Amino acid sequence: MIQRFRHSCMMAASAVALLSAPYATRAASLPPGLTEQAIDTTVERARQAFNVPGIAVAVVHDGQIVFSHGYGRRAEDKGSAPVDGRTLFAIGSNTKEFTATALALLVDQGKLGWDDRVIDHMPDFRVADPSITRDFRVSDLLTHHSGMGLGAGDLMLFSHSTLTRPEILAGLPFMPFTAPFRTQYAYNNLLYVVAGALVERLTGQSWEDVVQKRLIDAAGLPACQSTPPVKGQTNVATGEGESGLLPDKASRLLPGVAPAGGIWCSVDGMARWAQTYLDGGRTPDGRQVFSQASRDALWAPHALLPLPDTAEATRTHFRAYGYGWFMEDFFGYKRVWHTGTIDGMVSYMTFLPELKTGIVILTNHDDHNATYSIATTLSAYAATGTSADWIAHWRDAENAEHAAEAKAATSTGPGSPARPFITLSESAQQDYVGTYRDDWRGPITISRRGPDLRMAFSHADGLSGTLSALPHDLFVVRWDDRGQDGSDDAYVQFERDVSGKVVGMSMRLIGSDFSFDAQDLHPKKVSSSFSEEKEAKGR
């Protein structure tokens, strides 16, 4: 959940504090137009404007890491330790370039072709349309133009999901298509999980082992790992709304989402990854981890995207997606980039290859506006020597969005005077109680607890909430975990047959988090009580 932000100007004392940070590696060879002062000022302004506890920034130029610095602290707790170059952050969807690069390794080895049919390597691969199943290519896993909707299947990956990768793949055939195959861009995490499974199928090893040994270790990325941190690791950032408690290694379940967003890495590790990419897959010490031909294929446009709202200001005339990377023109230069958001953290990696420059930004606050502000500002300085005030741009846009949301919530939102909640009798509530089953997400239970109706998802460690009634079988579910799920409160519309019996439900998100894809759920009621379900299983 994104919190309300504090806004303040940077004080002179803040600049002094920056220079006394415990970790700073700097050189005089920053890209022309970009200075240490510009970086410090930009980062600290963004940190204050968007209330970010900690940020790590690195700059690569002409083959060298010329800037690596930590700002602020590792957690929301003001007493937490400072961020440094080896602090582990969750990099979210910047993991996708690692998964795409793992496939590129197989292409380099002749074990795979980008245009190979997926079903030829994974005979059990299925999507909803048999003809699309037969023609689905390896490249289609990576370019977000499969025809599935925005964020399709994310409820199997996020929102406390404990579904395993085999269970996720089993749900794939039930995901609906909302557009013709290969015609419309819609960002998708689910198919990167399939891409990770393809890596596993062709190597006989786990995705985690392949990425760790053949990419992270092979490229020599310091403080970087393909698995979440565990007890005993100390230099670890904590994301917004997270407890900071690390799991026992022995009890940790491998997350299904890992190939789409599971890597944790430091800014020093990501900076070396940037060096390797800028040099065509070769590390600074000369080791060729993947081929330049593969790097060029990953960085080639494969699916066109709409232009961003900022296109005129950045002189952007095209935007596209490659294999695990976005790309666009930016003040006359090619820019390659990707972001990542997971576990209350946001990352941003951006390149200006013609200028031999890469920039890495890692944060522990669940808001992309800070990373967008810093990345766009520093990239503009590197490209042109000057920059618009992107911090003010995204701060103002965010304030306007929050004001509009607050106005809608109080004027026409559920529970407002225009749409007040109603009270149902115990017998009326009983109509809804029971177990519902969705083809791809599994069982969802509705129960009574005291005066309340409760909803809980199976295969989820804590996705549960209270239902508040509106007229006509419509409810709002307010999730218990306000820190992680508060922005994902949703409408729940129950459905009745001609006899008046509740037979199913549908859901729609109230907010705008595309990764809570409740609109694709079509749960049908399979029992009217938990005892009925147990009896049915026993027969």
From TrEMBL:
User: Origin, by domain of life?
Assistant: Bacteria
Q: Which residues form a coiled coil?
A: none
Q: Where does the Beta-lactamase-related domain lie?
A: 41-378
**Signal peptide start-end:** 1-27
Residues spanning the membrane: none
Q: Which GO terms describe its molecular function?
A: hydrolase activity
**Keyword field:** Hydrolase, Signal
Q: Which residues form the Peptidase S12 Pab87-related C-terminal domain?
A: 423-522
In Swiss-Prot or TrEMBL terms, this protein is called: Serine hydrolase
Species of origin: Gluconacetobacter tumulicola
